[in-house]
């Protein structure tokens, strides 16, 4: 690395998920400037002037490493515009899944959550990773996937046109950000509730469009801003716990609502039958309160005052005349019985 200190960085173009590469301009110790780029092997290969001569060798190397789950990045150099780019080599690195990822996916499957892998990695690497995690190996490329219209709008009939292509597979590889966005939109139009996890800038549109966007630990600011939930710990096991708790809460709310509906229907049925089938006058006697109760009128007679009052009002002359005896024509007999409770 000390040899790199003699070079000065003049310009730098950050990674663009659309081009899948980054580029920098350096000045050597002699003052000569040149460009260096790194990115997806198939993208860098297409930039090289001798791409047709080295394509077979590069593809074979990438394929061999991809079958072992090893990811690769290609590096190329351009000394001047006339010569074009020339391949310098391939960088390899291993990025295995977390140990708890497979168990998390198995738990999701138990709860009826179907998981799809949507990645920008090479198709071979995606298939190997999916096989290790137990997701299946039906991983497709970008061929046939929906794209945005010429004016940048999203088609309204994605589910009808691409539903049969997007729903069955276990995942997609070598996709661009717009593919992720449209895959999520297609699943939503097909009637699914979609949750999306991501960490990069290229995941932000899909995170925003999904029903539940989840930014994992260490995600970029763009992904955090677009997501609904931001994880602060590594791994996705917390997602399973969130599914459990949310379903418990929903079940409790559903049970309570059903209980309240049943209790309300019970009361309504009782009062409906009582109103039409029973007459209060048939159950009360105007002279019900005997003499001995006068000694404890504040307790015993008070409890029967409303029924006796209703009975006396029902028999009052004002009631038979179609008028309200309480507010218009209270008779002395009614007031006496209401006050004394007998």
From TrEMBL:
Keyword Disulfide bond assigned: no
Gene3D superfamilies on file: Calcium-transporting ATPase, cytoplasmic domain N, Calcium-transporting ATPase, transmembrane domain, HAD superfamily/HAD-like
Keyword Electron transport: no
Membrane topology: Multi-pass membrane protein
A GO molecular-function descriptor: ATP binding
Keyword annotations: ATP-binding, Magnesium, Membrane, Metal-binding, Nucleotide-binding, Phosphoprotein, Transmembrane, Transmembrane helix
Membrane-crossing residue ranges in chain numbering: 257-278
A single Gene Ontology CC term: membrane
Signal peptide residues on this chain, from the entry's feature table: none
Localization, UniProt: Membrane
Family: Belongs to the cation transport ATPase (P-type) (TC 3.A.3) family. Type IIIA subfamily.
Protein name: P-type H(+)-exporting transporter
Organism of this sequence: Hemiselmis andersenii (Cryptophyte alga)
């Amino acid at each position: 690395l000390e040899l790199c200190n003699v070079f000065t960085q003049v310009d730098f173009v950050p990674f663009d998920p659309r081009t899948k590469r980054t580029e920098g301009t350096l000045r050597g110790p002699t003052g000569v400037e040149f460009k260096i780029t790194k990115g997806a092997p198939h993208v860098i290969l297409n930039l090289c002037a001798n791409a047709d001569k080295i394509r077979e060798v590069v593809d074979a190397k990438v394929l061999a490493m991809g079958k072992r789950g090893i990811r690769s990045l290609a590096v190329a150099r351009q000394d001047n515009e006339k010569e074009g780019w020339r391949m310098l080599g391939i960088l390899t690195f291993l990025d295995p899944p977390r140990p708890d990822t497979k168990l998390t996916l198995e738990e999701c499957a138990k709860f009826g959550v179907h998981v799809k892998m949507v990645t920008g990695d090479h198709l071979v690497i995606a298939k190997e990773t999916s096989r290790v995690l137990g997701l299946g190996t039906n991983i497709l490329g970008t061929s046939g996937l929906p794209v945005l219209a010429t004016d940048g709008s999203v088609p309204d009939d994605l589910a009808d046109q691409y539903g049969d292509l997007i729903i069955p597979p276990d995942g997609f590889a070598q996709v661009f950000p717009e593919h992720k966005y449209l895959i999520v939109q297609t699943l939503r139009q097909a009637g699914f509730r979609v949750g999306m996890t991501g960490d990069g800038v290229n995941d932000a549109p899909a995170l925003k469009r999904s029903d539940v966007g989840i930014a994992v630990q260490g995600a970029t600011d763009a992904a955090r801003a677009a997501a609904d939930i931001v994880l602060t710990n590594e791994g996705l096991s917390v997602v399973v716990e969130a599914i459990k708790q949310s379903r418990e809460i929903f079940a409790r709310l559903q049970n309570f609502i059903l209980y309240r509906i049943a209790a309300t229907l019970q009361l309504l049925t009782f009062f409906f039958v009582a109103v039409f089938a029973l007459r209060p006058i048939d159950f009360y006697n105007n002279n019900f309160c005997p003499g001995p109760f006068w000694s404890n009128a504040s307790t015993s007679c008070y409890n029967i005052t409303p029924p006796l009052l209703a009975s006396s009002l029902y028999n009052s002359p004002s009631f038979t005349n179609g008028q309200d005896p309480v507010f218009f024509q209270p008779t002395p007999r009614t007031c006496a019985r209401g006050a004394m409770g007998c």
